Amino acid sequence: MQTTKRYLFIGLLLVVLLAGSSAMVYANTVGCTEAAPASLITKYEPAIKLTPNESYHPQDIDSYLGQCELKVDETFGNPTKIPQGQVTAASLGQHDQTNAYLQFADDTNWVAPGPNTTSVNAAAAAMTGTKRAYYAREFEQKGYKVLQYWFFYPMNDWGEHGGFNNHEGDWEMTTVFLQPQGNGQWEPAYAAYSAHHEGGDFVRHDWSALQTEGDHPVVYVSAGSHANYPQGGTYQGADWSGQDLAGYNDKAAGGGTQIGGASGQTWEQRNVIDEENLPDWVKWKGQWGVTSNMPGFSGPPGPMGREGGDMWNDPVGWAQVPERIPALSIAFLVDCSGSMAGNKLEAAKAAVKSSVTKTDDGLTEWAVLGFGGCQFWEECGFSQDARLAGARVSRLGASGDTPLTYSTYKALAYLTKSGRAPLGRLIILCDGQDNCPERGSTTQEEAMEGLKTIINNVQMPQSTRGNP
Amino acid sequence: MKVKATYALITTLFAVTWLLSTRPTEARRMLSEPNDTVETAQAEALAAVQNSSMQITISTVGFDIPPGSEAEQYLKETALIGNGGYFVAAEGGDLAAAMQAAATGQVAVATQGGPVITSPRDGEIAGPATEIIGHTDPEALVVIWTVTFRADTNEELRNVPGIRHRAQENGDFHFRIATPRVAFGQRDLRLRYEIHIRVETPDYKGPETIINMYSK
């Protein structure tokens, strides 16, 4: 009897724990992303060419944060201070305020910096020897696989190189836009390099016109400002509003240290940002460097805040990359009711995966939708990445009733709202009848009449309905 | 005693296995609202298609469904209304083949009584010319015409008049039509060919099947 009770207790405990964890994952809301493998990110990582007199290089943020205090300017002139040693990437989230900022702990001279102020301080100088690092993302936007590389420099000392300003902290970025080729292959089409506050065709470059080392785009970094250019040379500088700054130039001739590419030093840290669980330091709203009343002399916001968020949220729009429209949007609607559990669901997953592979022509996008337990959900939003869609199909689980009619209607709405192609194909896989009274009961005739009403309203070109 | 304990253990393991098989293993985006009903979902779909220029087909795959059952009837009718195909797979059968057929736009079951087209498949890339292979009523007169659109904007460019052919005695037909990659003097313009295959009747309202193809 004791043994029986013990087994039952352990069993019930397991059931409760698993049920609880199910509820927790249902609560999250994300599109189709997947922890990115490093393969594409490392394949296309930039080769950075610095100038010989450059004092800094893209580095890990941890060593920088180790040199900083975190201040929250709650009362002017008397900010709340988190002391050096307690500021870490993980702890930034505890002070997620727009008026928070980081400042080198040893920086006692930064009071009112003006143009050409000698502001390179001891803390920044102590950064040499830190890890050569980038922070990369992989996601899809408007028909492209976007590989975005963020570089952190501890200091912008452009003023020391004939430029306009100095400020603590500096975030720069290179983005590579890949277009699908089918069969799981991608090829680069464009790259965009951050340069001050520029956007559009100033920062966008055709891949075919870029200097590359193997698959690595070559990036010439301006001395001090760390603005990025596709060719070595001197470029007209610009201010925080994008206006030309007469007399201030970016000197980006290369010739100094190179990081990445065939002939450069290796990247020591390749940090991949998890799009489903963004780390606190990414979401942090504060400034990476002490703030100043003088425009152009404050530390910048983090990657999510650069250019009002456009570089992070809408790189295609920021760089004015031509949007790619797929030819066909396929939505797979998979019956995940209880009767599908076990081998049947496994067969369904394999069938969807093979269908994705079969239609991977570089012109098709897929979404994976599920229904069961009187619910309808998106397992994978529209994507042209067959690997990613396949990975998300694997996550389908089965339980409960079969809300077939309800889900068919919901899927039609989803397909037309979220699909980007002119042609949409809804594919329904099902092993039974509609049986979800919770969503309202309809007869089969009523369900078909409802479907006819919807389909009759699909906008078909006039010519398809008449005679030639 | 030992039997009871074993029974309890088996029950527990069963419950745990069931939970493991049914729980979502990772995050997903729930799209159901608590107050959703079939009626609200229908209204949502209607509004969505009215605000979209997307041309939609619906295909269905019946998995382990008894032939002639209400469930099968439901899926067949859905495909018929959705101008798609209905495909069948038995449990342990080739579900992948059925799904692939649906995904590649096969219309193995005639759509609204139109000719069955076995090649090309809906959504295929067109070469300079395209073979249209299918089946219809014996010796039926089949008319084929093509409407060409810009693939990016869906703007209609040209309606190419049809050709008429007689199907063979067994109903098979096999025609060749032009689907040029460069159209109307414009290069680098991606095209969508909407190919109409209709059984000719005196009132010109015979059953029709439409296949979409794309230039490279």
Describe it.
The complex is a heterodimer of chains A (468) and B (216). Chain A has helices at 2-27, 38-43, 61-65, 122-125, 280-283, 310-313, 315-318, 343-358, 386-393, 404-418, 444-455, and strands at 47-49, 68-72, 80-82, 100-104, 133-141, 144-156, 167-182, 185-193, 204-206, 212-213, 216-221, 228-229, 233-238, 244-252, 258-259, 269-272, 328-335, 364-372, 375-383, 423-430. By secondary structure, chain A is of the alpha+beta class. In chain A, the strands form 5 sheets. Chain A has a 6-stranded mixed beta sheet. In chain A, strands 1, 10, 11, 12 and 15 form a 5-stranded mixed beta sheet that branches. In chain A, strands 19-18-17-20 form a 4-stranded mixed beta sheet, with helices on both faces. Chain A is elongated and about 80 Å long. Chain A starts with a helix and ends in a 13-residue tail after the last helix. Chain B has 4 helices and 11 strands, in the order H-E-H-E-H-E-H-E-E-E-E-E-E-E-E. Helices cover 25% and strands 35% of the residues of chain B. The N and C termini of chain B lie far apart (73 Å). Chain B is of the alpha+beta class. Chain B has helices spanning 2-22, 38-50, 70-81, 95-103; strands at residues 29-30, 55-63, 83-89, 116-119, 124-125, 129-135, 141-150, 156-166, 172-178, 191-199, 208-214. The model of chain B is unreliable at 14-26 and 108-112 (pLDDT under 50). In chain B, the strands form 3 sheets. A 5-stranded mixed beta sheet of chain B has the order 5-11-10-7-8, with no helix packed on it. Classes of the chains: A alpha+beta (468), B alpha+beta (216). At the A-B interface, helix 1, strand 17, helix 8, strand 18 and strand 19 of A face helix 1, strand 1, helix 2, strand 2 and helix 3 of B.
